[in-house]
Write a structure and sequence with these properties.
Elements lengths: L1 H17 L3 H50 L1 H4 L4 H15 L2 H11 L15 H6 L1 E4 L6 E11 L5 E15 L2 E9 L1
Antiparallel strand pairs: 1-2, 2-3, 3-4
Length: about 180
């Protein structure tokens, strides 16, 4: 992109030098300004589209992940719990960068911390309250928030809105989560 911009400006510079008549030069300068403004607007729109696409992907990912988590019959059946964790693992492997996935696998040996949700307890309110916002002045970083359930005892729970960061990268045309972090 920068190379193309440089070539464009060099071309305009040569045209300006070749103009003998001042009125021709003014016309070219006006046209050049308009073209440059259009290019800047187009570039800004492409950046916005990229962010919208990343955000949409992240929202859909978390909707699907939370929905699977709370609705999987294997999660509620102790005998099928290993199958549930295997299914979660395959989701993580598919939707995380290799380095982030391997980091999760390494730490799984020590604890069962879920990096995707920042180890929060998911519930139906998590899905209904899910929000994703672009973090200002940070490339590819989003704030993910939802309501999480915290059991007080066997019969009672407390609900809190939680937030954490998720970094998304475009890995050969496929979006993947490369990092999550708490506040």
């Amino acid at each position: 992109m920068i190379k193309n911009l440089f070539i464009f400006w060099f071309f305009i510079f040569i045209i300006n030098l070749s103009c003998d008549n001042k009125s021709e030069s003014k016309i070219i300068k006006k046209d050049t300004t308009r073209v440059v403004n259009d290019m800047i607007i187009n570039l800004e729109n492409k950046i916005d589209e990229k962010e919208d696409t990343e955000k949409e992907w992240l929202v859909n990912f978390y909707k699907n992940y939370i929905s699977f988590y709370i609705n999987s019959p294997n999660r509620l059946n102790k005998a099928k719990l290993p199958l549930f964790f295997k299914q979660l693992d395959s989701i993580k492997k598919k939707h995380c960068t290799e380095s982030f996935y391997l980091k999760q696998k390494e730490n799984e040996i020590v604890s069962d911390f879920d990096y995707i949700t920042n180890n929060e307890f998911l519930c139906t309110q998590s899905l209904n309250s899910l929000e994703v916002f672009k973090k200002i002045n940070e490339n590819d970083v989003y704030i993910v928030s939802f309501i999480a359930e915290y059991p007080k005892n066997e019969n009672e729970s407390e609900y809190k809105k939680i937030s954490f960061e998720a970094t998304v990268i475009n890995n050969n045309g496929v979006y993947k989560i490369s990092k999550t972090c708490c506040f």
